[in-house]
Backbone:
């Protein structure tokens, strides 16, 4: 009899409490999914701006970061060790610090105040470049320093000139470089602190997914926050799925 | 391509690893560089290939001090293959020399046939065995018919049938294309089998350099006699 009572309590009373708490989340997910398919123009605009800002930032960071990583990995110079340590430190730069610095530089009384870029997508791109570039430089440098001596020696003995050897090195590191770029994109699309400070989360102008989620949470609008969260997760999944397919294809 | 070495010195951290007063590597022949571990064999090859810089001295290639990069290549004991297919590895030196498609195809086909690599043409390089990797690296090095081929223990840790294949193709290229080949070998039997000229190095110095037959039959230096005797015994 006691055993039956215990089992009843565990099954029904326990599930009542769990279901009660879970209901809020499940309801949020359900409403979130229907919101995604409702074609809400505001959501599409926010997702579009998030992708635009992060993609532009990653492209610019890759254009700067990959050659810098290659240079760092293939050349020796005074204080290289310090430069590498600084880059490693900046790889984990807190977004709010990056945002604050960019904000101070771009504010009216700042060195670049004349351009009036604060609270614009351009400022958000700049802030994300500050976060993403060290990641791409650091990860590229790590692969280059490992592979460069071997690939350079091979290129030299096969008659490849300097430009061809650099090209060969980049081609040989394609999987590693792609991983670095994707990691940078992951950092850009998911960060909230920097874009909040320099963008200001202005509706229709600088509102991106992460800042919107933060605002919706504050307003208690969990369904909408979950909807945006699902889209953010989905985009992250797509990007990583593409990377995984590329890695798989290259290793077959 | 005749190689002339004069007063060549190489130091690492102030320690002399190579000190050659004079050495000539004959053109159009196969030269075996032999000697105990740490004798300076790999250093000598790296200096000739121009992938390392000498502390002092000079190397002349067919009379010129400029390294003819387009005519020299080197194979390593642990070769690095590009992360792509066998055929793309072999054709890489041809592409950078501007060969056209049919010429590349003809050359790749010939080399893959000769080295029994035809069935691996589309195979990715990281799926090959040690012997296959060595053969692909050799095919790649030979693809553009270099004037000078430097090989650092190309047949170490490879099965006997692959060694025979490699030796056969080296001899053919030497005979038909006139490729000067310099190879490091720890295998005296191999040096005797394929080389025309032998250079014995020890402690970074040339102990003896002579025609292969004369070197093994009537070595003129005590060091050579001792080395040959020890290597044969061990």
Residues:
């Amino acid at each position: 009899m006691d055993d039956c009572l215990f089992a009843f309590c565990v099954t029904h009373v326990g599930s009542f409490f769990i279901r009660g708490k879970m209901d809020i989340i499940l309801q949020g997910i359900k409403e979130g999914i229907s919101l995604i398919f409702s074609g809400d123009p505001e959501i599409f605009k926010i997702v579009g701006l998030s992708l635009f800002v992060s993609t532009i930032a990653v492209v610019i960071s890759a254009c700067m970061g990959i050659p810098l990583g290659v240079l760092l990995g293939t050349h020796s110079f005074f204080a290289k060790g310090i430069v590498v340590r600084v880059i490693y430190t900046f790889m984990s730069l807190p977004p709010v610090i990056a945002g604050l610095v960019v904000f101070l530089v771009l504010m009216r009384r700042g060195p670049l105040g004349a351009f009036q870029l604060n609270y614009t997508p351009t400022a958000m791109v700049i802030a994300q470049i500050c976060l993403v570039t060290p990641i791409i430089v650091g990860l590229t440098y790590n692969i280059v320093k490992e592979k460069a001596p071997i690939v350079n020696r091979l290129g030299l003995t096969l008659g490849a000139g300097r430009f061809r050897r650099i090209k060969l090195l980049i081609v040989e590191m394609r999987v590693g470089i792609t991983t670095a770029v994707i990691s940078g994109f992951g950092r850009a699309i998911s960060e909230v602190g920097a874009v909040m400070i320099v963008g200001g989360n202005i509706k229709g102008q600088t509102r991106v997914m992460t800042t919107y989620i933060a605002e919706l949470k504050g307003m208690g609008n969990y369904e909408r926050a979950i909807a945006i969260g699902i889209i953010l997760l989905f985009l992250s999944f797509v990007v990583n799925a593409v990377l995984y397919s590329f890695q798989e294809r290259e290793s077959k | 391509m005749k190689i002339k070495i004069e007063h060549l010195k190489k130091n690492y951290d102030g320690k002399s690893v190579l000190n050659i007063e004079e050495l000539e590597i004959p053109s159009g022949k196969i030269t075996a560089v032999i000697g105990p571990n740490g004798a300076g064999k790999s250093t000598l090859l790296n200096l000739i290939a121009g992938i390392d810089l000498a502390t002092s001295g000079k190397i002349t290639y067919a009379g010129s001090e400029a390294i003819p990069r387009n005519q020299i290549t080197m194979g390593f004991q642990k070769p690095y293959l590009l992360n792509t297919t066998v055929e793309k590895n072999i054709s890489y030196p041809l592409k950078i020399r501007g060969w056209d498609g049919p010429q590349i195809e003809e050359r790749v086909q010939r080399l893959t046939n000769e080295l029994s690599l035809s069935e691996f043409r589309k195979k990715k390089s990281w799926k090959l065995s040690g012997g296959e990797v060595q053969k692909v690296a050799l095919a790649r090095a030979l693809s553009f018919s270099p004037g000078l081929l430097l090989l650092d223990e190309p047949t170490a840790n490879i099965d006997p049938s692959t060694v025979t294949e490699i030796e056969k193709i080296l001899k053919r290229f030497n005979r038909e294309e006139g490729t000067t080949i310099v190879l490091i070998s720890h295998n005296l039997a191999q040096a005797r089998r394929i080389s025309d000229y032998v250079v014995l190095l020890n402690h970074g110095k040339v102990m003896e350099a002579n025609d292969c037959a004369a070197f093994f039959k009537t070595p003129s230096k005590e060091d050579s006699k001792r080395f040959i005797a020890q290597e044969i015994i061990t």
